[in-house]
């Protein structure tokens, strides 16, 4: 049975969304095409009608995941205009975000996977990282003068590192300590 163009595009978007979540949970190589397609409610045979390769899907799913992450940062900042940086830190460096595997930060979830791939897979991550840096730069630029770009880089590095470390340990007190220490240091950096 043939699928209409509209339905085919809906199916493609569903696969990209599901893959963006499953890749964050399992890594690019930690899940096969059969399981990705089953997660989207489709057969494996439909995959090659929509994507040229698993790497093509990884690129599209990475774009989706990073766009979603950027939207979450923006939403947190908009909801708390009195302290937008604090709102982003409270969301990003929270225990809830630490426990998110499928919808959490794609930079943390897939950073080491991306490092082992080529330029095409790295490109959406680079764009997403730059978008995060721009957001952080805007949040601190009003008080930071010309140094805000370097501070934004340091802050993003600390946020990503703290979240990654908090996910790497079993001890929940230590995990929370990483998040809390980063939040405090970032606030100090931003206000200096």
The description of the largest β-sheet is: none
CATH topology: Tetracycline Repressor, domain 2
What would you call the shape?
elongated
CA-to-CA gap between the ends? 64 Å
Low-confidence stretches: none
Question: What is the number of helical segments per DSSP (H or I, 4+ residues)?
Answer: 10
What does this structure look like?
This protein has about 190 residues and is an all-alpha fold. The chain has one domain: Tetracycline Repressor, domain 2, CATH 1.10.357. It has ten helices and no strands. The protein has helices spanning about 5-25, 35-40, 45-50, 55-80, 85-90, 95-100, 105-115, 120-145, 150-170, 170-190.
Fill in the keyword field for this structure.
192 residues; mainly alpha; Tetracycline Repressor, domain 2; Tet_transcr_reg_TetR-rel_C_sf; TetR/AcrR family transcriptional regulator; transcription; Homeodomain-like_sf; DNA-binding
How would you concisely characterize the structure shown here?
The protein is an all-alpha fold. 78% of the residues lie in helices and 0% in strands. It has a single domain (5-191), classed as Tetracycline Repressor, domain 2, CATH 1.10.357.10.
Topology:
Layout: H1 5-26, H2 33-39, H3 47-50, H4 54-79, H5 84-92, H6 95-99, H7 106-115, H8 119-144, H9 148-168, H10 172-191
Helix pairs in contact: 1-4, 4-5, 4-8, 7-8, 8-9, 9-10
């Amino acid at each position: 049975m043939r699928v209409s163009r509209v339905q085919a595009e809906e199916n493609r978007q569903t696969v990209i969304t599901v893959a963006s979540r499953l890749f964050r949970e399992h890594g690019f190589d930690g899940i096969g095409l059969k399981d990705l397609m089953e997660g989207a409610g489709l057969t494996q045979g439909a995959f090659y009608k929509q994507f040229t390769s698993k790497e093509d899907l990884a690129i599209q799913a990475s774009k989706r995941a990073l766009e979603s992450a950027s939207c979450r940062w923006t939403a947190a900042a908009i909801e708390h205009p009195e302290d937008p940086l604090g709102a982003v830190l409270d969301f990003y460096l929270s225990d809830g975000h630490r426990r998110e595997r499928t919808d959490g930060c794609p930079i943390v979830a897939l950073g080491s996977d991306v490092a082992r791939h080529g330029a095409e897979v790295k490109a959406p991550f680079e764009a997403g990282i730059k978008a995060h840096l721009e957001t952080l730069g805007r949040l601190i630029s009003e008080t930071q003068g010309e140094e805000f770009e370097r501070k934004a880089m340091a802050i993003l590095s600390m946020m990503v590192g703290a979240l990654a470390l908090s996910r790497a340990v079993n001890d929940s007190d230590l995990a929370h300590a990483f998040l809390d220490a980063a939040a405090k240091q970032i606030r100090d950096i931003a206000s200096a």
